[in-house]
Amino acid sequence: MKKLLTLLALCAALVLTLTACGGSDAPAAEEPEDTVVEGDTSETYAPLATDLANEFLHLVDTAEDPSALTLAEDFLAVADLPFEAMVMPVEPGLLMGFGNTEITGFSQGVMFGPSISSIPFLGYVFQLDGSVDGSAFCQTLKSNADLRWNICTAAEEMVAVQSGSYVFFLMCPSSLEG
Amino acid sequence: MRKLTLLVLAGVLTLMGPAAQALDLHFPGEEPREGIYLTQSHLVEAEPAVLPEMTDYAADKIQYIYDTYLAGTDCKGYFAMVPAKEAFLQKGSLTHEVMGRTFRQELPFLTYLNLAPMMALENFYRTDLHWRQENLPDVASYLAAAMGTQVGTGYRENLWTGDFFGTYSPRLTAPLRPDAVRYLTSDTIDGCTVTGYDLMGRAETQPVYNLEKAAGGNPYDLFLSGPQGIQIMENPKGPAGKELVLFRDSFGSSLAPLLLEGYSKITLVDLRYVFSHTLNQYVDFQDQDVLFLYSSLLLNNSLALK
Asked: Where are the domains of chain B?
Protein backbone atom coordinates (compact mmCIF):
# COMPACT_ATOMS: atom_id res chain seq x y z
CA MET A 1 0.00 0.00 0.00
CA LYS A 2 2.87 2.32 0.88
CA LYS A 3 4.41 1.61 -2.52
CA LEU A 4 1.11 2.38 -4.21
CA LEU A 5 0.81 5.70 -2.38
CA THR A 6 4.38 6.56 -3.36
CA LEU A 7 3.57 5.69 -6.98
CA LEU A 8 0.44 7.80 -6.82
CA ALA A 9 2.37 10.76 -5.44
CA LEU A 10 5.04 10.44 -8.12
CA CYS A 11 2.45 10.20 -10.87
CA ALA A 12 0.60 13.23 -9.56
CA ALA A 13 3.83 15.18 -9.44
CA LEU A 14 4.62 14.09 -12.99
CA VAL A 15 1.20 15.20 -14.23
CA LEU A 16 1.60 18.58 -12.57
CA THR A 17 5.08 18.99 -14.02
CA LEU A 18 3.98 18.10 -17.54
CA THR A 19 1.02 20.40 -17.31
CA ALA A 20 3.23 23.26 -16.16
CA CYS A 21 5.67 22.68 -19.02
CA GLY A 22 3.30 22.06 -21.81
CA GLY A 23 -0.14 23.06 -20.74
CA SER A 24 0.18 26.76 -21.11
CA ASP A 25 1.10 28.74 -24.15
CA ALA A 26 4.49 30.29 -24.59
CA PRO A 27 4.66 33.65 -22.85
CA ALA A 28 2.79 36.12 -24.97
CA ALA A 29 4.69 39.11 -26.26
CA GLU A 30 4.08 42.03 -23.99
CA GLU A 31 1.39 44.31 -25.24
CA PRO A 32 2.66 47.82 -25.68
CA GLU A 33 1.12 50.62 -23.74
CA ASP A 34 -0.48 52.78 -26.33
CA THR A 35 -3.10 55.33 -26.99
CA VAL A 36 -4.91 57.11 -29.75
CA VAL A 37 -6.48 60.32 -28.60
CA GLU A 38 -7.04 63.72 -30.04
CA GLY A 39 -5.31 66.51 -28.19
CA ASP A 40 -5.31 64.68 -24.88
CA THR A 41 -3.14 61.90 -23.52
CA SER A 42 -4.42 61.82 -19.97
CA GLU A 43 -5.98 58.35 -20.15
CA THR A 44 -2.89 56.45 -21.04
CA TYR A 45 -0.52 54.06 -19.33
CA ALA A 46 2.64 54.65 -21.29
CA PRO A 47 4.42 57.19 -19.12
CA LEU A 48 7.43 58.04 -21.25
CA ALA A 49 5.69 57.94 -24.62
CA THR A 50 2.79 59.92 -23.19
CA ASP A 51 5.06 62.57 -21.70
CA LEU A 52 6.76 62.99 -25.04
CA ALA A 53 3.45 63.07 -26.89
CA ASN A 54 2.27 65.81 -24.53
CA GLU A 55 5.41 67.80 -25.38
CA PHE A 56 4.44 67.50 -29.01
CA LEU A 57 0.83 68.54 -28.42
CA HIS A 58 2.01 71.60 -26.57
CA LEU A 59 4.23 72.51 -29.49
CA VAL A 60 1.35 72.20 -31.95
CA ASP A 61 -0.75 74.47 -29.75
CA THR A 62 1.91 77.15 -29.64
CA ALA A 63 3.49 76.93 -33.10
CA GLU A 64 2.41 79.30 -35.85
CA ASP A 65 1.85 77.66 -39.22
CA PRO A 66 4.17 74.74 -38.50
CA SER A 67 5.36 72.05 -40.89
CA ALA A 68 5.95 68.40 -39.98
CA LEU A 69 9.67 69.08 -40.23
CA THR A 70 9.74 72.11 -37.96
CA LEU A 71 7.49 70.38 -35.43
CA ALA A 72 9.82 67.38 -35.31
CA GLU A 73 12.90 69.58 -34.99
CA ASP A 74 11.27 71.69 -32.29
CA PHE A 75 10.16 68.53 -30.51
CA LEU A 76 13.70 67.16 -30.44
CA ALA A 77 14.95 70.52 -29.19
CA VAL A 78 12.65 70.51 -26.16
CA ALA A 79 12.34 66.79 -25.44
CA ASP A 80 15.60 66.57 -23.50
CA LEU A 81 16.52 63.17 -24.95
CA PRO A 82 19.73 61.58 -23.66
CA PHE A 83 20.98 60.92 -27.17
CA GLU A 84 21.73 62.80 -30.34
CA ALA A 85 18.76 62.57 -32.69
CA MET A 86 18.15 63.20 -36.35
CA VAL A 87 15.14 64.02 -38.55
CA MET A 88 14.58 62.65 -42.04
CA PRO A 89 11.72 63.36 -44.48
CA VAL A 90 9.62 60.38 -45.56
CA GLU A 91 7.20 59.79 -48.41
CA PRO A 92 3.96 57.81 -48.35
CA GLY A 93 4.67 54.11 -48.83
CA LEU A 94 6.62 51.55 -46.83
CA LEU A 95 8.00 53.12 -43.67
CA MET A 96 10.38 51.79 -41.07
CA GLY A 97 8.54 50.20 -38.15
CA PHE A 98 5.30 49.27 -39.92
CA GLY A 99 6.21 45.99 -41.51
CA ASN A 100 4.97 45.37 -45.00
CA THR A 101 2.07 47.85 -44.85
CA GLU A 102 2.18 51.05 -46.84
CA ILE A 103 1.42 54.16 -44.82
CA THR A 104 -0.39 56.76 -46.92
CA GLY A 105 -2.70 59.70 -46.35
CA PHE A 106 -0.20 62.37 -45.41
CA SER A 107 1.14 65.33 -47.35
CA GLN A 108 4.23 65.82 -45.19
CA GLY A 109 6.02 63.28 -43.05
CA VAL A 110 9.27 63.08 -41.14
CA MET A 111 10.91 60.27 -39.22
CA PHE A 112 13.17 60.91 -36.24
CA GLY A 113 15.45 58.70 -34.21
CA PRO A 114 18.90 58.37 -32.66
CA SER A 115 21.77 59.48 -34.90
CA ILE A 116 24.03 56.68 -33.77
CA SER A 117 22.56 54.44 -31.13
CA SER A 118 20.75 51.15 -30.81
CA ILE A 119 18.11 52.59 -28.48
CA PRO A 120 14.76 51.36 -29.85
CA PHE A 121 13.34 54.83 -30.35
CA LEU A 122 11.49 55.66 -33.56
CA GLY A 123 9.12 58.56 -34.10
CA TYR A 124 7.15 60.23 -36.87
CA VAL A 125 5.32 63.49 -37.39
CA PHE A 126 2.75 63.49 -40.16
CA GLN A 127 0.66 66.28 -41.63
CA LEU A 128 -2.46 64.59 -42.91
CA ASP A 129 -4.09 65.05 -46.27
CA GLY A 130 -7.25 67.12 -45.90
CA SER A 131 -9.71 64.29 -46.35
CA VAL A 132 -8.02 61.75 -44.10
CA ASP A 133 -9.68 60.61 -40.88
CA GLY A 134 -7.06 61.18 -38.17
CA SER A 135 -8.39 58.50 -35.85
CA ALA A 136 -8.35 55.90 -38.60
CA PHE A 137 -4.82 57.00 -39.57
CA CYS A 138 -3.63 56.59 -35.97
CA GLN A 139 -5.30 53.21 -35.78
CA THR A 140 -3.51 52.11 -38.95
CA LEU A 141 -0.19 53.15 -37.42
CA LYS A 142 -0.95 51.34 -34.19
CA SER A 143 -2.17 48.14 -35.69
CA ASN A 144 0.79 47.79 -38.04
CA ALA A 145 3.54 49.02 -35.75
CA ASP A 146 6.21 46.46 -34.99
CA LEU A 147 7.91 47.14 -31.68
CA ARG A 148 10.77 44.89 -32.79
CA TRP A 149 11.28 46.54 -36.15
CA ASN A 150 15.04 46.11 -36.19
CA ILE A 151 14.98 42.51 -34.92
CA CYS A 152 17.68 42.89 -32.28
CA THR A 153 16.11 45.45 -29.92
CA ALA A 154 12.50 46.12 -28.97
CA ALA A 155 10.52 49.18 -27.90
CA GLU A 156 8.16 48.85 -24.96
CA GLU A 157 5.77 51.74 -25.41
CA MET A 158 3.83 53.15 -28.31
CA VAL A 159 1.76 56.28 -28.69
CA ALA A 160 -0.18 57.82 -31.55
CA VAL A 161 -1.84 61.19 -31.00
CA GLN A 162 -3.57 63.61 -33.31
CA SER A 163 -3.91 67.35 -32.97
CA GLY A 164 -5.62 69.07 -35.86
CA SER A 165 -4.02 67.92 -39.06
CA TYR A 166 -0.88 66.64 -37.30
CA VAL A 167 -0.19 63.16 -36.02
CA PHE A 168 2.64 62.25 -33.67
CA PHE A 169 3.68 58.61 -33.46
CA LEU A 170 6.38 57.16 -31.25
CA MET A 171 7.77 53.76 -30.25
CA CYS A 172 10.28 53.90 -27.41
CA PRO A 173 11.61 52.09 -24.34
CA SER A 174 9.79 52.57 -21.05
CA SER A 175 12.81 54.44 -19.76
CA LEU A 176 15.71 56.25 -21.35
CA GLU A 177 17.83 56.17 -18.22
CA GLY A 178 20.97 54.08 -18.06
CA MET B 1 -4.98 -4.72 -5.24
CA ARG B 2 -3.79 -5.30 -8.77
CA LYS B 3 -7.17 -4.05 -10.04
CA LEU B 4 -6.81 -0.90 -7.99
CA THR B 5 -3.29 -0.30 -9.31
CA LEU B 6 -4.47 -0.67 -12.91
CA LEU B 7 -7.38 1.64 -12.22
CA VAL B 8 -5.06 4.25 -10.77
CA LEU B 9 -2.62 3.98 -13.67
CA ALA B 10 -5.46 4.29 -16.18
CA GLY B 11 -6.61 7.43 -14.38
CA VAL B 12 -3.14 8.86 -14.36
CA LEU B 13 -2.69 8.21 -18.07
CA THR B 14 -6.01 9.86 -18.79
CA LEU B 15 -4.95 12.86 -16.75
CA MET B 16 -1.66 12.95 -18.61
CA GLY B 17 -3.43 13.01 -21.95
CA PRO B 18 -3.80 16.76 -22.34
CA ALA B 19 -0.33 17.40 -20.98
CA ALA B 20 1.22 14.90 -23.34
CA GLN B 21 -0.76 16.41 -26.18
CA ALA B 22 0.46 19.84 -25.24
CA LEU B 23 4.01 18.57 -25.24
CA ASP B 24 3.44 17.20 -28.70
CA LEU B 25 2.35 20.65 -29.77
CA HIS B 26 5.57 22.06 -28.44
CA PHE B 27 7.68 19.40 -30.08
CA PRO B 28 5.86 18.81 -33.33
CA GLY B 29 8.88 17.78 -35.37
CA GLU B 30 7.88 19.46 -38.58
CA GLU B 31 4.84 21.63 -37.89
CA PRO B 32 5.68 25.17 -36.74
CA ARG B 33 4.00 26.50 -33.63
CA GLU B 34 4.33 30.20 -32.84
CA GLY B 35 6.56 30.14 -35.91
CA ILE B 36 9.05 27.89 -34.12
CA TYR B 37 9.64 24.18 -34.29
CA LEU B 38 12.10 21.71 -32.88
CA THR B 39 13.94 19.50 -35.28
CA GLN B 40 17.35 17.89 -35.44
CA SER B 41 17.91 19.14 -31.85
CA HIS B 42 17.52 22.76 -32.95
CA LEU B 43 14.81 25.31 -32.43
CA VAL B 44 14.15 26.67 -35.89
CA GLU B 45 12.02 29.56 -37.05
CA ALA B 46 9.91 29.03 -40.14
CA GLU B 47 11.19 31.53 -42.69
CA PRO B 48 8.55 33.74 -44.25
CA ALA B 49 8.27 33.93 -48.02
CA VAL B 50 10.66 36.29 -49.73
CA LEU B 51 9.11 39.76 -49.83
CA PRO B 52 10.13 41.46 -53.09
CA GLU B 53 9.51 44.92 -51.66
CA MET B 54 11.99 44.15 -48.88
CA THR B 55 14.71 42.76 -51.14
CA ASP B 56 14.17 45.73 -53.46
CA TYR B 57 14.51 48.13 -50.55
CA ALA B 58 17.72 46.41 -49.40
CA ALA B 59 19.15 46.50 -52.93
CA ASP B 60 18.20 50.18 -53.25
CA LYS B 61 19.91 50.97 -49.96
CA ILE B 62 23.10 49.19 -51.01
CA GLN B 63 22.91 50.92 -54.39
CA TYR B 64 22.65 54.24 -52.53
CA ILE B 65 25.75 53.40 -50.48
CA TYR B 66 27.61 52.46 -53.64
CA ASP B 67 26.57 55.57 -55.57
CA THR B 68 27.20 57.94 -52.67
CA TYR B 69 30.42 56.58 -51.20
CA LEU B 70 32.05 53.92 -53.36
CA ALA B 71 31.63 54.94 -56.99
CA GLY B 72 34.78 56.59 -58.27
CA THR B 73 36.95 55.27 -55.43
CA ASP B 74 39.34 52.33 -55.42
CA CYS B 75 37.11 50.42 -53.00
CA LYS B 76 36.29 46.83 -53.91
CA GLY B 77 32.75 45.72 -53.09
CA TYR B 78 31.53 42.28 -51.99
CA PHE B 79 28.19 40.86 -50.92
CA ALA B 80 27.55 37.82 -48.74
CA MET B 81 24.37 36.54 -47.16
CA VAL B 82 23.98 34.40 -44.05
CA PRO B 83 21.20 31.90 -44.72
CA ALA B 84 18.76 31.25 -41.88
CA LYS B 85 18.92 27.98 -39.97
CA GLU B 86 15.98 26.58 -41.86
CA ALA B 87 18.08 26.48 -45.02
CA PHE B 88 20.19 23.71 -43.52
CA LEU B 89 17.44 21.27 -42.58
CA GLN B 90 16.90 18.11 -44.56
CA LYS B 91 13.94 19.71 -46.28
CA GLY B 92 15.45 23.14 -46.05
CA SER B 93 14.08 26.52 -47.03
CA LEU B 94 15.22 27.88 -50.38
CA THR B 95 14.85 31.49 -49.30
CA HIS B 96 18.56 32.20 -49.47
CA GLU B 97 18.78 30.82 -53.00
CA VAL B 98 15.90 32.99 -54.19
CA MET B 99 17.42 36.01 -52.47
CA GLY B 100 20.89 35.19 -53.73
CA ARG B 101 19.67 35.25 -57.33
CA THR B 102 17.90 38.54 -56.71
CA PHE B 103 20.90 40.29 -55.21
CA ARG B 104 23.30 38.93 -57.82
CA GLN B 105 21.07 40.48 -60.47
CA GLU B 106 20.39 43.76 -58.68
CA LEU B 107 23.92 44.38 -57.41
CA PRO B 108 26.19 43.52 -60.34
CA PHE B 109 28.86 45.92 -59.08
CA LEU B 110 29.49 43.69 -56.05
CA THR B 111 31.26 40.33 -56.06
CA TYR B 112 28.87 37.74 -54.66
CA LEU B 113 30.40 35.40 -52.07
CA ASN B 114 28.30 32.33 -51.41
CA LEU B 115 28.55 31.16 -47.80
CA ALA B 116 25.95 28.41 -47.99
CA PRO B 117 28.21 25.59 -49.25
CA MET B 118 30.51 25.87 -46.26
CA MET B 119 27.79 26.11 -43.62
CA ALA B 120 25.64 23.56 -41.81
CA LEU B 121 23.08 23.52 -39.02
CA GLU B 122 25.94 23.00 -36.58
CA ASN B 123 27.17 26.50 -37.35
CA PHE B 124 24.22 27.84 -35.34
CA TYR B 125 23.24 27.83 -31.69
CA ARG B 126 20.51 25.29 -30.98
CA THR B 127 18.20 27.80 -29.28
CA ASP B 128 19.01 30.96 -31.19
CA LEU B 129 19.11 32.36 -34.69
CA HIS B 130 22.78 33.37 -34.58
CA TRP B 131 25.82 31.46 -35.70
CA ARG B 132 28.44 30.14 -33.30
CA GLN B 133 31.77 31.91 -33.47
CA GLU B 134 33.78 28.79 -32.70
CA ASN B 135 32.47 27.24 -35.91
CA LEU B 136 33.27 30.24 -38.11
CA PRO B 137 37.03 30.16 -38.78
CA ASP B 138 36.48 28.40 -42.12
CA VAL B 139 33.88 30.98 -43.15
CA ALA B 140 36.28 33.78 -42.15
CA SER B 141 39.11 32.15 -44.11
CA TYR B 142 36.94 31.87 -47.20
CA LEU B 143 35.84 35.51 -47.01
CA ALA B 144 39.36 36.75 -46.36
CA ALA B 145 40.80 34.78 -49.28
CA ALA B 146 38.04 36.01 -51.58
CA MET B 147 38.93 39.58 -50.62
CA GLY B 148 42.63 39.06 -51.21
CA THR B 149 43.93 38.61 -47.68
CA GLN B 150 44.60 35.80 -45.25
CA VAL B 151 43.51 34.84 -41.78
CA GLY B 152 44.62 31.89 -39.74
CA THR B 153 42.46 29.29 -38.06
CA GLY B 154 44.46 28.84 -34.87
CA TYR B 155 42.52 30.29 -31.98
CA ARG B 156 42.23 29.75 -28.27
CA GLU B 157 38.70 28.67 -27.39
CA ASN B 158 37.15 30.22 -24.28
CA LEU B 159 33.91 29.29 -22.55
CA TRP B 160 31.60 32.00 -21.24
CA THR B 161 30.40 30.78 -17.88
CA GLY B 162 26.69 31.54 -18.23
CA ASP B 163 23.85 29.64 -19.90
CA PHE B 164 22.54 30.89 -23.21
CA PHE B 165 18.82 30.44 -23.65
CA GLY B 166 18.57 31.88 -27.14
CA THR B 167 15.93 34.10 -28.61
CA TYR B 168 13.71 31.16 -29.53
CA SER B 169 13.70 29.64 -26.03
CA PRO B 170 11.02 31.88 -24.48
CA ARG B 171 8.65 30.93 -27.27
CA LEU B 172 8.46 27.39 -25.95
CA THR B 173 7.41 26.41 -22.47
CA ALA B 174 9.02 23.00 -22.62
CA PRO B 175 12.44 22.74 -21.00
CA LEU B 176 15.39 22.79 -23.35
CA ARG B 177 19.07 22.52 -22.62
CA PRO B 178 20.79 25.91 -22.92
CA ASP B 179 23.54 26.60 -25.40
CA ALA B 180 27.13 27.19 -24.35
CA VAL B 181 28.75 30.36 -25.63
CA ARG B 182 32.36 29.97 -26.70
CA TYR B 183 34.55 32.76 -27.99
CA LEU B 184 37.88 32.71 -29.77
CA THR B 185 40.96 34.68 -28.87
CA SER B 186 44.42 35.00 -30.39
CA ASP B 187 47.40 37.29 -30.04
CA THR B 188 45.95 39.41 -32.85
CA ILE B 189 42.57 39.75 -31.19
CA ASP B 190 44.12 40.38 -27.79
CA GLY B 191 46.28 43.13 -29.28
CA CYS B 192 43.59 45.03 -31.15
CA THR B 193 41.65 48.08 -30.05
CA VAL B 194 37.94 48.68 -30.55
CA THR B 195 36.41 52.13 -30.70
CA GLY B 196 32.66 52.66 -30.57
CA TYR B 197 30.40 55.63 -29.99
CA ASP B 198 28.25 56.56 -27.04
CA LEU B 199 24.68 57.88 -27.23
CA MET B 200 25.86 61.40 -27.95
CA GLY B 201 28.19 60.26 -30.71
CA ARG B 202 31.38 60.53 -28.66
CA ALA B 203 34.11 57.97 -29.30
CA GLU B 204 34.74 55.41 -26.55
CA THR B 205 36.98 52.36 -26.15
CA GLN B 206 35.21 49.01 -26.04
CA PRO B 207 36.30 45.40 -25.52
CA VAL B 208 36.18 42.78 -28.29
CA TYR B 209 34.38 40.45 -25.91
CA ASN B 210 32.16 42.23 -23.42
CA LEU B 211 31.59 39.86 -20.50
CA GLU B 212 29.55 42.46 -18.64
CA LYS B 213 27.13 42.87 -21.54
CA ALA B 214 26.87 39.11 -21.93
CA ALA B 215 25.79 38.78 -18.32
CA GLY B 216 23.34 41.65 -18.66
CA GLY B 217 20.63 40.06 -20.76
CA ASN B 218 21.52 38.70 -24.17
CA PRO B 219 24.68 36.57 -24.01
CA TYR B 220 25.25 37.10 -27.74
CA ASP B 221 26.04 40.72 -26.79
CA LEU B 222 29.37 39.24 -25.66
CA PHE B 223 30.54 39.80 -29.21
CA LEU B 224 31.55 43.44 -29.75
CA SER B 225 29.07 44.62 -27.11
CA GLY B 226 25.93 43.82 -29.11
CA PRO B 227 24.03 46.32 -31.26
CA GLN B 228 26.25 49.25 -32.27
CA GLY B 229 26.02 51.75 -35.13
CA ILE B 230 29.72 52.18 -35.87
CA GLN B 231 32.75 50.38 -34.48
CA ILE B 232 36.38 50.51 -35.53
CA MET B 233 38.73 47.61 -34.84
CA GLU B 234 42.41 48.34 -35.29
CA ASN B 235 45.10 45.69 -35.56
CA PRO B 236 48.57 47.21 -35.13
CA LYS B 237 50.17 44.03 -36.50
CA GLY B 238 47.89 43.76 -39.52
CA PRO B 239 48.96 44.26 -43.14
CA ALA B 240 49.64 47.97 -43.54
CA GLY B 241 47.00 49.83 -45.51
CA LYS B 242 44.70 46.83 -45.84
CA GLU B 243 41.31 47.92 -44.50
CA LEU B 244 37.80 46.52 -44.49
CA VAL B 245 34.45 48.28 -44.15
CA LEU B 246 31.91 45.72 -43.02
CA PHE B 247 28.25 46.61 -43.49
CA ARG B 248 26.62 44.10 -41.24
CA ASP B 249 23.88 43.04 -38.88
CA SER B 250 24.38 41.13 -35.63
CA PHE B 251 25.97 38.18 -37.41
CA GLY B 252 28.95 40.42 -38.14
CA SER B 253 29.71 40.88 -34.43
CA SER B 254 31.04 37.38 -33.98
CA LEU B 255 32.65 37.13 -37.41
CA ALA B 256 34.60 40.39 -37.48
CA PRO B 257 37.22 39.39 -34.86
CA LEU B 258 38.11 36.40 -37.04
CA LEU B 259 38.80 38.67 -40.04
CA LEU B 260 41.09 40.93 -38.04
CA GLU B 261 44.33 39.14 -38.85
CA GLY B 262 43.92 40.03 -42.52
CA TYR B 263 43.43 43.75 -41.96
CA SER B 264 44.97 46.66 -40.13
CA LYS B 265 41.56 48.22 -39.64
CA ILE B 266 37.97 47.01 -39.80
CA THR B 267 35.12 49.49 -39.65
CA LEU B 268 31.78 47.91 -38.81
CA VAL B 269 28.63 49.72 -39.89
CA ASP B 270 25.15 48.68 -38.80
CA LEU B 271 22.68 50.77 -40.78
CA ARG B 272 19.90 50.02 -38.32
CA TYR B 273 21.63 52.26 -35.82
CA VAL B 274 23.23 54.95 -37.95
CA PHE B 275 21.77 56.95 -40.82
CA SER B 276 23.25 56.04 -44.19
CA HIS B 277 23.49 59.67 -45.28
CA THR B 278 25.83 60.46 -42.37
CA LEU B 279 28.45 57.77 -43.01
CA ASN B 280 31.06 60.20 -44.29
CA GLN B 281 31.32 61.47 -40.71
CA TYR B 282 32.77 58.12 -39.71
CA VAL B 283 34.32 56.51 -42.78
CA ASP B 284 36.64 57.92 -45.42
CA PHE B 285 36.02 55.62 -48.35
CA GLN B 286 39.19 55.35 -50.46
CA ASP B 287 40.52 51.92 -51.32
CA GLN B 288 39.08 49.60 -48.68
CA ASP B 289 37.48 46.24 -49.18
CA VAL B 290 33.78 46.80 -48.58
CA LEU B 291 31.75 43.76 -47.59
CA PHE B 292 27.96 43.81 -47.25
CA LEU B 293 27.28 40.87 -44.96
CA TYR B 294 23.64 40.45 -44.01
CA SER B 295 21.44 37.64 -42.80
CA SER B 296 18.53 36.65 -45.00
CA LEU B 297 16.34 37.50 -42.00
CA LEU B 298 17.34 41.15 -42.13
CA LEU B 299 17.28 41.37 -45.91
CA ASN B 300 13.68 40.20 -45.75
CA ASN B 301 12.99 42.89 -43.15
CA SER B 302 15.16 45.58 -44.66
CA LEU B 303 13.08 48.66 -43.80
CA ALA B 304 15.10 48.61 -40.59
CA LEU B 305 18.06 49.96 -42.57
CA LYS B 306 18.28 53.72 -42.17
From this structure: 49-304
